[in-house]
Specification:
heterodimer, A: mainly beta, Methylamine Dehydrogenase, Chain H, 38% strand, globular, B: alpha+beta, Ubiquitin-like (UB roll), five-stranded mixed sheet, 22% helix, 19% strand
Amino acid sequence: MSGARVLVGTRKGAFVLTADGKRERWQVSGPHFAGWEIYHVKGSPADPDRLYASQSSGWFGQVIQRSCDGGKTWETPGGGVTKTPDGMPTGESNRFVYDASPETGKPLTTHQWYDGTQHPWEFKRVWHLEPSLADPDTVYAGVEDAGLFRTSDGATTWRELAGLRGHGTGPKWQPGAGGMCLHTILLDPSNSARIYVAISAAGAFRSDDGGKTWKPINRGLRSQYIPDPNAEVGHCVHRIAMHRSRPNVLFMQKHWDVMRSDDAGDSWREISGDLPTDFGFVIDVHAHEPETVYVVPIKNDSEHFVPDGKLRVYRSRTGGNEWEALTKGLPQSDCYVNVLRDAMAVDALEPCGVYFGTTGGQVYASANGGDSWAPIVRDLPAVLSVEVQTLP
Amino acid sequence: MIRVVLPPHLRTLAHVKGEVMLDVDGHVTLRSVLDALEARYPVLRGTIREHVTERRRPFLRFFACERDLSHELPDAPLPEAVASGAEPFIVLGAIAGG
């Protein structure tokens, strides 16, 4: 019987939650990499047993972990692999070095700092890992300070796609409150040369040649608190989502405003409609209904928790503007959690499952497209990311 | 043999228990000890010293023989007691949050 495997990254480790297709009873495994921040865990669409995890720490830096058995065991792939006496691999996999070679054309050395001065690029961590749709050994990594890296050897070595950082607007990028992170990577299932990324606070960018060259795609975004509200770059995009059947239609949760593009990001229009607040982090699309979109409104940019003490997912079945609150099974009093930008996912089962994790350590699941919810776990460390795999 | 004490998270990462014992050729310095450590456990590359620059990561410190060696030059000799194996070389996480 088919099933679901939910991959959860938290402030203090990773957890793997599994269930059969009914999604009623869950097995919890973890913590994996206990005590480390796990910004993201994601499986390969081409091989569901192949998982990648971003493990990091302010003390010890970045490590990439790989599993070839669906998360039961993990290894650190990398050059110069040696084994401990008990046979555990200890390979290097944490080398993310910005490309400063002459071949990149015009390698950048600085971006805008909080105070408007220029500041050198400094690698801090991997926020998001996006495995290729076709090859389990190819993965894209979005990092802080914002850059895009790719491995084609199963995370053994990583190389920057420097055309993004070097395309010309980099000196205008600046950090958001969480740092200057590349947090969203979308691969077009109908066009292997097309990649979308989003950066806080720079905006959205698109490549149509497999990542060699890039252009900003932020026309229609308006951000009140930057010098030019309609600037080409400088917008704090929090998340972008697409439905695989319509890769030219993009949905965006910006710092403020929920937005939509019907032309692959060339232009955007606001679809916040009747949301109680249009600030938020996550956005996702129903697996079988490309016009059904989910967001979790957050009170505002200085109070990062749900409004009125009520945890409500909002669903639009009309591609935006008209939203309904989904509350059944979610706390409707005294709740003050946040749902971070990578912490919502949908499965492809029937009916579509929707999952999200909170900074309070709960992971909620709905096995009916959001009509009702139940916690899978209630007391994990703060949840940074949630992904789900639909298992055959 | 040089004795090295790693913080718990790095012991877990490298799959080691207790002290690490290292052979170091030539002069026993911060650089030669850390080079030997990383050669034996490549997973530790980048976790103690930054890639490329090989600078000590900001929240880590080095101690031995009740001395703070964090700011010693990379090629300065470590104390004789470390070189002889009488005392361990300690890599310690600075306390800076939870």
